[in-house]
Each structure stands twice: as C-alpha cells, then as structure tokens.
Amino acid sequence: MVGKSANLAVINNHTFEATKAVNLHNYDISSALQTTLKFTELIAIFCSKIANKIPHSAYVYINKEFDLEVKSGVFTRHSCNYALKVEQQQLGELKLMSNHRFSDADLQLLEAMLCCLIYPLRNATLFHQALKMAYTDPLTQANNRSSFNDCINREISLATRNAKKLSLIFFDIDHFKAINDTYGHDCGDITLASSAKWIKENLRDSDIIFRYGGEEFVILLSDTDTNGAKLLAERIRASIERHTIAYGMDTIKITASLGVSTLGDNDTRESFVKRADEAMYAAKHNGRNQVVSAN
C-alpha cells in the first residue's frame, strides 16, 4: 500500500506570525522567494531550500487556474499533499514524495516552512491573473490581439530554430453585420461567444485561439503543416455549420470562411499573417462557408 498523507495548508495571520520568526531565522527561504513571480521558479527554489531539512525525492505542483503542472525528481511510494490557500484564494497544490514515510516532525516542520511560500505564491497569482486579464478578450475568453502579437513572434522563432512547421487559420463569421443589424448587438455578442466556444472544442491543447478583431479569429498551430491545418480548418467550418443559435423566438444558422497559411522559409511575420488573411478573403469571395489555403 502506498504511504500517503493528505494535508491542507491554510495560512492566516495567526499561523503566519507564529511561524514567521523561526522560519526566517533558520532558513534563508523568504528572501530567495522574492526574486521571481514565476510559479515554476518559486516551487523549485522552495523545494531546493527545504531539501536538507525535509529530504524528498520529487515534487509536483498543480495550479488548475493557470492549467499548470510542474514536476521534478524521482517519483517514489510515499507522499504528502498540501492544498495551498490564503484566506479564500486558492494557490494550487504541492506534493512532496519520498522513499520513506514522512514523520510527524517532518510534516510539522514542512507546514511551518510553507508559510514562507504562501505569500510569494499569492503575489505570483495576482500577477498572472492581471496578465491573463490583459491578454484575454472578455466577451469570448479567447486571447486578444495584444496576446497574438507577442505569441506569434515567439512561435515563429521556435519554429525556425527547431525546424518545425507553423500554421495559421484565419476565421471570419459570414454575414456578421447582417446578424447585428437584424437581431441587435446582444445577438451578435452571443454569436461571437458561441463561435469561440465551438472553435475551442475542435482544438488541441497546443493550439491557441485569438480574437483578432470584430468577428475575426486567428488560430495558431504549432508543429502543424498545411495539410494538418486544412483538416483542422475544415473540421471547425463543419462544426460551425452544424450548430444553431437560438435568440428569442428565432433560430439563426451561421457559417464561417477560413483561410490557411503555413510559415515558409522566406516568410516574415507580416507575410505569414497576410497570406492567411488573403486566403480567408478568397473564401469569402468564392462563396463563403469554405476553407482556402494560401499554400
């Protein structure tokens, strides 16, 4: 039977004040944790700093809010688990693993030392929440144009360095202005949010969707060639066509036109994006509700 201790680390002012002095006196943890706002670095620093006092073979940190899982070390049979929170704010879960069962003294010491981790994790959470809000379109919950501008530069650099394929899909809702004019902007907002949801349902974990502007979305596909991008674009197009929006007493069928481009050896960011955009407009010109590839 696997040895396991499930624990909940809940920090409050009384707990923090009671343990702060002994932690900071014996271990140089707090100052080291002030050097970064990255979750991966915070957990690595913390686990490194406590290793001499609480030997462990591996750690796992999970933060569902940011879809993050950090692992390091050799997984063994005994573990202790902590759900980290301050007041009502969830800060993720930390698991330490060991070849030997953690003693009560180990757990008491660990719980005291976790007080040094809680507030840096809260600072990191607040920072990343603000960053997420700055990069997220509030209506569709897709990434926004600013996020796209940052992300595409990074992905082009990675694709070029690693000799990987990179593709783009431009997506535009057909006759969107007519929907707004006929049914109003509330219906238009529902159409946008629903379209984003249906697109996401067809994406892989590695694919990234952005609201590019108005009724236009962009999907960035790492490690994907032209054929793969065209197949995905067609799956998205068919999914949109199958759905119906109910608004009041009306049902509204929508379709979309999609353009695909794949990064070429001589492409700049501008030419890569322009070819996908032009392919999407070609789909519009050719009758809408179709996929056109620029490659």
From TrEMBL:
Its EC number is 2.7.7.65. One of its GO terms (molecular function) is diguanylate cyclase activity. Residues 164-295 form the GGDEF domain. PANTHER family: DIGUANYLATE CYCLASE DGCM-RELATED, REGULATORY COMPONENTS OF SENSORY TRANSDUCTION SYSTEM. This is diguanylate cyclase. GO terms for biological process: cell adhesion involved in single-species biofilm formation; negative regulation of bacterial-type flagellum-dependent cell motility. Pfam families: GGDEF. It catalyses: 2 GTP = 3',3'-c-di-GMP + 2 diphosphate. GO terms for cellular component: plasma membrane. Its cofactor is Mg(2+). It comes from Candidatus Methylobacter titanis. PROSITE patterns: GGDEF (PS50887). The lineage of its organism: Bacteria, Pseudomonadati, Pseudomonadota, Gammaproteobacteria, Methylococcales. InterPro entries: Diguanylate_Cyclase, GGDEF_dom, Nucleotide_cyclase, Rev_trsase/Diguanyl_cyclase.
